[in-house]
Amino acid sequence: MEKILFLTGRLAQVSLKKVLANITPQTFSWEIKVIGLQVAGLMTADMIMRRLNSFNYDTFDKIIVPGRCRGDLKKLSFDLGIEVIRGPEEMKDIPKFFNKKSLSQDISAYDILVFAEIVDATELSVEQILKKATDFKSFGADVIDLGCLPETEFSHLEESIKILKENNFKVSVDSLKAEELIRGGNAGADYLFSLTPKNLWIADEVESIPILIPNEPSDEKSLFSSIEFLLERKKKFLADSILDPIPFGCLESLCRYKRLREKFPNIDILVGVGNITELIDTDTNGVNTFLLGLCSELNVAGILTTQVGDHARRVIKEIDVARKLMYAAREMQCLPKNLTDELLTVHEKNPFLDTKEEIEETAKEVKDPNFRIQISKNGLYVYNRDGLRSGKDPFTFYPKLQLENDSSHAFYMGVELARAEVAWRLGKRYSQDKGLSWGVAEEPRGEDFLTHCQPTIKTKFRNLKK
Predict the structure, then answer these.
(1) Using alpha carbons only, how large is the chain's radius of gyration in Å?
(2) What is the pTM of this model?
(3) What is the mean pLDDT of residues 379-405?
(4) Is 438 exposed, middle or buried (CB count within 10 Å of its CB: 0-12, 13-18, 19+)?
(5) Please, what's the b/e burial string for 161-200 (b: 16 or more CB within 10 A of its CB; e: otherwise)?
(6) 113-332 classified as CATH 3.20.20.20
(7) What is the CATH architecture assignment of 2-103?
(8) Domains of the chain: which residue ranges?
(9) N or C terminus: which one in the chain shows less Cβ crowding within 10 Å?
(10) Both ends of the chain: CA-CA distance in Å?
């Protein structure tokens, strides 16, 4: 059985022992060592190197240090001659950390292409188009769709396609005009939106892969006839039944996609989701996740999305994560749960790690003046050697903290208590000195564990339960 040494601080020792004792089944043996500091979150690689010199760790297979331990653990492992691993940031995530070894899955694979439309391409310069395409690709787009506007000349269409192709982008052109589609195809566009039976002849004029749509969304026969025509000619294509917005036929349009798949089990289907995400005043993340689940069941080949409305500013990234999640769930034949937490943007599955009683117990052991901030399902808590304060509104704490003559400290506590209140009200995790996590809704804050956190002018503030 593997033997593991856990390093921690004095204040977390009792809690860590309880967490490790409750891991079942016990697949490893363990021992805890306090290395002469009070708060585990202040541990560094240099400190570990100095303080383990007199301790016999040769009987252990590995050492696990707190998740917020700073420093180069690879170098520390080499110097000590034993593997040193950074554990989870939250101590109560240790059981999940160990289960992760057997349950973790690679969810980087996907089989749905993301077409991201630049809807105002005709009004942008070539440089602006390249910049927006670069941003879209960084979010996860596979194909950049150049949207053409009615009654608007796209004089730089060829130049735009050329610069995108030179920068290794896949490109599609979306236009109602046959002339623009021909121009786009001749310029090297990989795909053309959208061909009906009326302009299907364009498929013979250029090498671009056509995306087929019906004459009218309800005219399924017109789409079927285009599909059968290209199948006979053995030409590649994608077919789109058109997803209608709510409450203007969304359910019926979903049924059309189902009938399309049943009639043509092996063709490539594309679904445009902008009619849903852009036209509902709600957070787009859950909508996109659900839509990608349906698309995964339909085995669609492509998703067309826009990213126009301010509320839809992250849809490409949301779709990118959702397609990978749904692919993994389908391939493993499991529910889309416990595979990634990136799509949990507002609420979290286990936000309150500590109970009111546990926080009260910890607060009794604190002997220094530094403030610790924690949350439980009951509210916010601030404590130091002078006692424990609790409440639900950050403003109620101010008279109790005696910071009237310490503006920098008061500012710090104001920021941290505001974060704590947001986390408590929404059901998110709060960790002192660290910004809240918003999943796919925002780029994660960078954190370099090879450098040390900068202390405030007077002291360092750390969440005790690390």
Answers:
(1) 28
(2) 0.80
(3) 94
(4) middle
(5) bebbeeeebbbbbbbeeeebbbbbbebbbbbbbbbbbebb
(6) yes
(7) 3-Layer(aba) Sandwich (3.40)
(8) 2-103, 113-332, 356-441
(9) N
(10) 27
